[in-house]
Amino acid sequence: MFDVITKDDLWGWIADGIEIPIEKRYRLKGIQDTFLYSDTMGFKDKKILEIGGGDSRLLRKLNEHNECWNADKFEGYGIGPKEEIDIKKVKNVNVFLGEYSDQLPAEYFDYIFSISVVEHVPNDMLEDFFLDCSRVMKPGGYMTHAIDLYVGDDSPENEFRFKVNENRIKRYLECSVAPETKFEFVVAPAITESFYFRTKFATNSDWTMWEWGRFAKKLDETRRNTQSISLKCRWRKRD
Question: Residues 152, 157, 159, 161: is their CA dihedral positive or negative?
């Protein structure tokens, strides 16, 4: 699976009874949380790793019946926590995926996921990121990422953003399923190159886009001309 979260997706998950806290309902994180909740409902006795979870919302729901780990350096990137957050029955490991740290055991996890993390991995680090994810995952395990993306219409001011996205998407596709990773898409990618915004996409609210401007002013012009959406991506490690 390599596609965009749509309104139909979101509304279907809500109809299935997935509830998001009110403070997250108007944010991209709420949309992404709903996607991950839909993927992990009913998990039991799984070894789960969240990448960059910070003060993790999802691990608080999964920790009762699963073994949960959070790989995060708690360095306050963006508006993330600057101090380590202790969550009951969640093991924190202060590493980045791509460092090949032995603090994360090889072929150990049944399920790996992240929310709004992969877009921050530099292009030249994506290969190591996915290789390290594969290293720590059991054969037959699953990996799911919700990845932020700014997507605009076909107006001239968005030509540069289109090219940026085209290169980035190409890197995601190439690095994640390189032969060495042993990953394969659970469902064939619906997106293989950059694309323009479509009104069926689930999006961040304009209010949240304005709020984000307080923390990252350099992207103000991008936010004025694009919509903030999320990719939904799922892989399986071959046996």
Answer: negative
124-134 per-position pLDDT tens digit: 999 999 999 99
Buried b (16+ CB within 10 A) or exposed e, 15-50: eeebebeeeeeebbbbbbbbbbbbbbeeeeebbbbb
pLDDT > 80? residue 53: yes
Distance CA 226, CA 149 (A): 10
Check whether 81 has a pLDDT greater than 80: no
Percent of the chain with pLDDT strictly greater than 90: 82
Instruction: Report residue 221's pLDDT band, with 50, 70 and 90 as the boundaries.
Output: confident
Helix (H, G, I), strand (E, B) or coil at 231: strand
* Polymer length in residues for the chain: 239
Q: The tokens 């979870």 sit on which residue? A: 53
pTM above 0.70, yes or no: yes
- Residue 210 phi/psi, 5-degree rounding, is -65, -40
Cα–Cα nearest to 176, from 199, 160, 192, 162: 192
| Distance separating alpha carbons of residues 87 and 43, to the nearest angstrom | 18
Whole-angstrom Cα distance, residue 234 to residue 188? 10
